[in-house]
Amino acid sequence: MTTITRLLTRGPDRGPVDIVLAALAVALLGFGVVMVYSSSVIEATVVFKDPQYFLKRQGFYALGGLSVIFLTSRFDYRKLRPLTYPIMGLVTLMMIASVIGLGHSGGGAARWLAIGPVHIQPSETAKLALVLWLAYSLEKKRERVRSFSIGMLPHLLMAGFLMILCLKQPDFGGASVLLLLTFTLLFVAGARLGYLLGLAMLGSLFAVWAVRFTSYRWERMLAWFNMSEHRQDLAYQPFQSVMSFGSGKLFGLGLGKGLQVLYLPEAHTDFISAIIGEELGFIGILALCTVYLVIVARGVRTALAAEDEYGSYIAFGISVLFGVQALINLAVAMSMLPTKGLTLPFVSFGGSSLLVCAAAMGILLNISRSSGSGNLRVSFSTARGPEPEASAMLVTEASFAPATSPAPAYPKSPTPKQRQPRPPPSPKEAR
To answer: Which of 124, 141, 197, 319 is deepest in the core (most CB within 10 A)?
Structure first.
C-alpha cells in the first residue's frame, strides 16, 4: 500500500519538458496517420469495403499515443524503480505465452496476444522493459560493472533469454534490437571493452548461425543477394519497395498519388517508408531521416544532462531504440538489409508499436525536465553552495603536473623588466 501511495503521489515540479522532442513526437504521430491512410486506402477498400478502415484505427492509436505521452511525461521516472521487476516479469510471461501456442499468428509468426479485440505484441514491450531493467541493474551495480560475473553475465543472460523468445516467434529483427540495446547500455555504463568486443563477436556468430541454419531465413538471404532473379517470389516485396523509391525521384509524385500501393504488400506497416519515398521523394525521406536524427541527438543530450545515472541510462536506451528501429526499417525498405519485421517509430500502422514508442517518448520527456537541485555531473551543487565539479581533464592534468615547492620567505629578486638602470651620479654626489 505504501508503494502504491508513493507512486500516485505527484513529485515536485521539475520544469518544462524538451519542447523540441515533444513537438517532433506529435508531428510524427500526425504524419503517420496521414501516410497510413495514403498507403492503405486501396487495400482497405478492396478487403474491408471501407476506405477509412486503417485510418480510423491509426487515428485512435495516435490519440491514445498522445495521451500516453502526456501522462508518462508527468510521471516521475524515478518512481519506475520499484516497478522494474514486475514489468519485466509481466513482459516475459507474455513472451512465453506467445511462444507456447497462445499467440495470435499473422504473416507466418505468432507475435501477438489476443485479449478480446485488442492484439498486443509482446516483443515491442520487451524492448522498453529491457531498457528499464538494464538501467536499474546497471545503476545498482555501477561499482562493479567492470566485473564479468556481476556487471556483464546477468545482463547477458536476461537479454539472451528474451532474444531466444523473440527468435521462437520468430522475430529476428526484434532479437537484433534487444542485442544492440544491451551492448549500448553496457558500453555507456563502462563495461570492459574486451568483454564488449567478445559480446559483439558472439552476437555476430549467433546471427550467422541463426540465418544459415534456418531454412526460410537462408532462402530469404539468397533471394536478397539475387533480387533480379527472385523478384517474383521471395524478393517480390523488397523489389517493389525499391521501385517505389526510384519512382519518387527528387520531389515525389505527390501525396496520395503513389502507384506502388497497388503492388507493394503491407505498404502501411513495415514498408511505409517506401510509400513516403514515392509520394514525397528524396526530399521527404531526407526530412524524415533528419527528424529521427534530431530525436536521437536530443535524447542523448537529455541523457548527458540527467539528474542521476538511472535516468541517464534510460535516456540513452530509448534514444538508441528510436534510432536503431528507424535505421533498420529504412535500410530494409531500401533493400540495404534483408527483410525484417520492424516498424518505423510513430509512423507505421500498429497499436503495440505506437503505444510503446509513446510510452518511451513520455519517459524521455520526463527525464528532460530540468531539476531545481541541478545536476552534479554537469552543473553546480546547491547543497553546499556553488562549487564546480572537477572535470576528468582537470584531474588528469593535476595528476601529472610537477610538484611545486612552497614560496620562499624572502622576497624574490626582480625580473629583468623590473630592474631599472641606476642614473649617473650628480656633480654634488660625485664630490
So the answer is: 124
- Please say if the pLDDT value at position 431 is more than 50: no
Instruction: Indicate whether 391 belongs to any domain.
Output: no
Kindly state whether residue 404 falls inside one of the protein's structural domains: no
Domain of residue 185 covers: 9-368
Q: Contact, 135 vs 317, CB < 8 A?
A: yes
Q: What does the alpha-carbon distance between residue 245 and residue 316 come to, in Å, rounded to a whole number? A: 31
C-alpha 252: how far from chain center: 29
Give the chain's domain count: 1
Q: Cα 33 vs. chain centroid, distance in angstroms? A: 22
The label of the residue with cell 492509436 reads 61
102 within some domain: yes
Q: Read off the pLDDT of each residue in 90-112 and give the average, rounded to a whole number.
A: 76
Residue 134 lies in a domain: yes
Phi, psi (rounded to 5 degrees) for 111: -105, -5
* pLDDT tens figures, 273-330: 999 999 999 999 999 999 999 999 999 999 999 989 999 999 999 999 999 999 999 9
**Model pTM?**
0.82
